Amino acid sequence: MTQPSCYLLEFSVGSGGARKGDIYAAGTLDAAREAFEETDHLDPYLILWYGSCFRLWIAQHGTVTGSVDLLPYVRSADPAHDATVRRLLLGTEEWIRDVLDDIDEVLVEHGWDMLAVLPLLDRVFTLRERGGPAAAAEERRIVAAAETGDLPRPAAGAPAAGLWLDWAALAARVPSLEGPLLSEGPVSVALAPGIPRDPDSYLCAGVADELFAGVNNLE
Fold first, then answer.
1. What is the pTM for the complete model shown?
2. Alpha-carbon distance 42 to 125, whole Å?
């Protein structure tokens, strides 16, 4: 029996302190967006600090032939923080993880609220790039103040409202599906040989061989 083609939007984390394993199956990108936004949101803690599989898998007739990493398409509701959000998500500079380790006590003090600490990270990243004794001293001062509750105020005067996915930019990158398309009911899926595995993915772990149109909670 020919399986329908579909997109599989996965937002999962591996074993540990956080537990999440959600896959949204749909025959169109708009339907995947609707299913995701009706039941889920971009948790800043999981996305920006903990680490997660946030990926769109492309399944042609039940065979996953490719995927798109969704992290590069995550934006801040306050564009002033987009550069910092991008750095946290993509992690291209080795010192980014060092910064997060250095502000661990700040995150504890503020309940692991990653949106609240974005203005602090903006400042720290700027100071790290500037370098020198004066920048290091200023970084120590603002981090120490934040550990006692005094976070730098965002330029807009209020914390960032959240994160969002740039669906328009994503749509330009996503390949089309071959019909028939999934509209309802189940679909059996398997990864094609050579598809890169994501360590946080439930799909890659082999626990999602049959999915249903809409929301699939695999945790």
1. 0.88
2. 23
